[in-house]
Design goal:
The complex is a heterodimer.
Chain A lengths: L20 H31 L5 H38 L8 H39 L2 H7 L4 H38 L5 H11 L2 H27 L4 H37 L2
Helix pairs in contact in A: 1-5, 2-3, 2-5, 3-5, 3-6, 3-7, 3-8, 5-6, 5-7, 7-8
Chain B lengths: L10 E10 L2 E11 L4 E5 L6 H8 L7 E6 L9 H8 L2 E4 L11 H11 L4 H14 L15 H13 L5 E5 L7 H18 L2 E6 L2 H9 E4 L4 E4 L15 E7 L2 E6 L1 H7 L2 H7 L1
Parallel strand pairs in B: 3-7, 3-10, 5-6, 6-7
Antiparallel strand pairs in B: 1-2, 1-4, 8-9, 10-11
Helix pairs in contact in B: 3-4, 3-5, 4-5, 5-6
Classes of the chains: A mainly alpha, B alpha/beta.
């Protein structure tokens, strides 16, 4: 028999006081700090896991296929149309001064430095951050993550690190493809609407770019990839409230990662311009 | 066995507290499960049965108190060290918790693949485990193509693949029809009596506990047979007895064998008998 058979003390009744404004704000601040702390730990683990085993190469390849190859078509289509639209806008402005030949310069710089990584980042965030959050969130609410832990597997190694590394590797490649296809779209439009020579467009576009521009675009893609994959994983692994919670986490993953990509872009651009003056 | 010659419990909880923002769910729970013993954890929904199992597997840490499994203080160990202890524990989740993107074979083989065993070693062991739960034909199917009872059986096969000394069952018959429930209980009996595992089984169905207390799997005739004619002499094939533990309002309300439950006449315990 237990020490206290058939004796049950009454459940402690908590007398709730009406919440004050300072208490509500304090609780909100504590929750926000806890989120930042947990997110930072997830980011740290996702990177430190690379240095030690076990590593899940099959999962990494599967994620590279899902994130990289799976996102290729939308990134290429978006890149083509953005390049085309940019030529229409810049060409119409340059034509007022009789300088349509400069169109290739401006489109190349804008695409490689800014639009390529940002648009690719936002598109992959919409497609993959949401996918990661919903997949991991569904696994969490159906106890698959607990089952994984119960069988001696660390979910941060098996689920988080392959997704983060795959995105870090694939987003720069997708950005490079988007840059190229954007220039193709721009050259097509410049030939048919501005009556520019294709050779002239491409030679000016290539000449306008230097190493610093390419480094700026690629390093942004790496940062954006890290942001969207870690935010997707964090939202997915912190789902509360069953299937409704999975829906909320999916939306949150896209919104948070998109805002963080755009906000970090400001600082990364400033940093890249500062560094390009010194190092590149 | 420790230095004084006493048998050490396979699982022990000492004054364990755990809860959420709304309040404590368990408030000072203590019990032990000895090797080869079966402990039936009874309680209404929300009394903390699943939390107890998850603490025993190291998936949750108590707010206060200590949890020891196979001598290891898992409530005080970092996550990375608990991973090794968990490999000695099989966990059958309430809804199976099968990996839905993997086939039945891949689910059952998961733990062996994590150990990087060669395919020629994994394949026969997976078939053996699936044969044990009578689902060898479903080896290439996805969990979404299985019924609820079949998913639980695959979950049992997954839990036993590495022959763990401890198996934790979270409401293994919840939501199943009586025939399927009986199949699951027979499997649990077989697992206990053939492999001698220590079992902690959470349920709200007392009849599951009585079945485990009164029957054993006889490998010679290949079926379940009554355990003993005389009350109090019940012992499984491997020598382990069956005890009952009842939770109520965050505390251990009753701990004893089936005869003590039946004789108690306690109105709360009688609710489980109906």
């Amino acid at each position: 028999m237990a020490d206290t058979p058939y004796q049950v003390t009454g459940r402690q009744v908590r007398t709730e006081e009406p919440p004050s404004v300072s208490r509500v704000l304090g609780d909100g601040l504590k929750r926000s700090i806890a989120h930042v702390q947990d997110y930072s730990l997830l980011c740290l683990e996702s990177v430190t896991n690379i240095l030690t085993g076990p590593r899940y190469l099959q999962d990494l390849l599967a994620q590279m296929d899902a994130i990289g190859v799976g996102s290729l078509s939308i990134v290429l289509l978006a890149g083509f149309f953005i390049g085309a639209v940019m030529v229409m806008h810049t060409g119409s402005q340059f034509s007022r001064f009789g300088q349509t030949a400069l169109t290739g310069d401006i489109v190349a710089v804008a695409l490689v430095r800014e639009l390529g990584p940002t648009i690719s980042g936002l598109l992959v965030a919409g497609r993959c951050a949401s996918g990661i959050a919903s997949e991991l969130g569904s696994m969490l609410v159906t106890e698959q993550v607990d089952a994984m832990r119960a069988m001696g597997t660390d979910p941060s190694r098996k689920l988080v690190t392959p997704r983060v590394v795959a995105t870090l590797l694939m987003l720069p490649l997708l950005t490079a493809m988007a840059d190229f296809i954007g220039l193709v779209g721009g050259s097509v439009v410049s030939v048919f609407t501005l009556r520019l020579d294709a050779y002239q467009f491409w030679s000016r576009a290539i000449a306008a770019l230097d190493f610093a521009d390419i480094m700026q675009g690629m390093s942004k893609a790496v940062f954006f990839g890290f942001i969207l994959s870690t935010v997707g994983c964090y939202q997915g692994l912190n789902v509360r409230g069953g299937t409704q919670g999975v829906g909320r986490a999916t939306t949150q993953a896209v919104v948070v990662s998109s805002v963080l990509i755009l906000a970090s872009d400001v600082f990364l651009t400033r940093l890249a311009l500062y560094l390009s003056g010194k190092f590149f | 066995m420790n230095l004084s010659g006493a048998v050490e419990p396979a699982i022990s909880l000492e004054d364990v507290h755990i809860g959420f923002e709304e309040g404590d769910v368990l408030r000072g729970v203590s019990f032990e499960v000895y090797p080869r013993e079966t402990l039936i954890l009874l309680g209404e929904t929300g009394t903390g049965k699943t939390l107890t199992l998850k603490m025993a597997a190291g998936l949750l840490k108590p707010a206060a108190g200590r949890v020891r499994v196979l001598g290891e203080p898992i409530s005080e160990m970092p996550e990375k060290e608990i991973l090794d202890v968990r490999r000695k524990i099989g966990f059958v989740f309430q809804e199976g918790a099968l990996f839905d993107s993997m086939t039945v074979a891949e689910n059952v083989a998961y733990r062996l693949q994590e150990d990087h065993l060669p395919d020629e070693v994994i394949e026969p062991r997976v078939r053996e485990a699936l044969r044990f739960v009578e689902l060898e034909d479903a080896i290439d199917r996805l969990p979404s193509e299985l019924s609820g009872g079949m998913r639980r059986r695959v979950s049992i096969a997954r839990a036993l693949i590495d022959r763990p000394p401890i198996v934790l069952y979270d409401s293994p018959t919840a939501g199943l029809d009586p025939v399927t429930s009986q199949t699951i209980i027979t499997l649990i009996l077989s697992l206990r009596d053939l492999y001698g595992v220590t079992s902690l089984l959470a349920t709200h169905r007392l009849q599951d506990g009585f079945a485990l207390a009164n029957f054993r799997f006889n490998p010679e005739v290949g079926r379940v047979v009554p355990l003993a004619a005389n009350p109090g002499e019940e012992r499984s094939e491997n020598g382990g007895g069956t005890r009952f533990l009842v939770y109520r309002e965050g505390k251990v309300y009753f701990e004893g064998d089936q005869h003590q439950i039946l004789k108690s006449g306690d109105p709360y315990l009688n609710r489980f008998l109906i």
